[in-house]
Amino acid sequence: MRKLLIVTSLLLVAHIALLFTRRSASAEGGGKATSSTRIGIVLDVGGRGDKSFNDGAYAGADSATRMLGSNIRFIEPGEGADREAGLRLLAAEGMNLVIGVGFIFTDDLANLAKEYPTTAFAGIDYALATDTNGLGSQPAPRPDAAENPVTYPYASFDGSTTMYQNRWGQRLWDFNADGGSQYGLFPDWIEDMSHVGGHEVVDDLARGAEAYLQMWERARNSVP
User: Fold this and answer.
1) What is the CATH number of the domain that holds 53?
2) What is the largest CA-CA distance in the chain?
3) Both 66 and 115 in a single domain?
4) Which of 127, 148, 167 is the C-terminal boundary of a domain?
5) Do 119 and 69 share a structural domain?
6) pLDDT in the model for residue 173
7) Residue 93 contacts residue 40 (beta carbons within 8 Å)
8) Which of 2, 71, 128, 175 shows a CA-CA span of 20 to 30 A to 121?
């Protein structure tokens, strides 16, 4: 798991957020993969040479191959190609991590993650939308919330505030059962994120724009 997280970090640093199959990054790098971690990346339309997300994804994959011996496979969609089919193919092949490059993969990644619960999915420029009027889906309770629940009260992510269970009159709201069914539960959602991804994920969320700028700086510096 630690190696998988390291590989993911390298790819994200290069700002990766696949239907014609290209050679794996390990093959193009000329070395034999020594890691058991298998990663599949579906590039956005435009492919390599876009001087943006796709090139960043490839640079990150190349670094992961050279430094960790990871086995990485790319799929580069053509115009009008079914991107979801590329993600599904990689998941069906048993990749440990499947990555979609570009916000257009957002819904496909979310849906496939439910179909392939043992596969890790990631998206570059992933779009998170929510709206209580129905224009965006609300975060549902985690299926395994009972094993690692949000407990009340808890400290806010910066430690400055004690957060109590949300109450409307006699109604008590519990994120473990209700999910993010109303905006008052969004602080609980952030707390839940820390249970799943650790405090580093919440810290990155809080840093927002600064993290985005730093990611591009690292991507630029990672290119040989």
Assistant:
1) 3.40.50.2300
2) 65
3) yes
4) 127
5) yes
6) 95
7) yes
8) 175
> Is residue 40 domain-shared with residue 19, that is, in the same domain?
yes
Q: What is the pLDDT of residues 105-150, one digit of tens each?
A: 888 888 898 899 889 898 887 766 666 666 567 788 888 889 999 9
Q: Are residues 112 and 139 in the same domain?
A: no
**Residues whose CB is less than 8 angstroms from the CB of residue 217 and which lie 6 or more positions away in sequence, other chains included:** none
Q: What is the pLDDT of residue 101?
A: 87
How far apart CA 157 and CA 159 sit, in angstroms, is: 5
Q: Are residues 13 and 38 part of one domain?
A: yes
| Domain extent for 171 | 129-224
**Residue 36 neighbours by CB under 8 Å, 6+ apart:** none
Tokens matching residue 33: 């993969």
φ, ψ for residue 196 (rounded to 5)?
-90, -50
Out of 34-43, 109-118, 146-155, give the one with best mean pLDDT. Answer: 146-155
Q: Tell me how many degrees the CA angle 168-174-178 measures, rounded to the nearest 5.
A: 95
Predicted structure pTM score: 0.55
Place of tokens 């034999």: 32
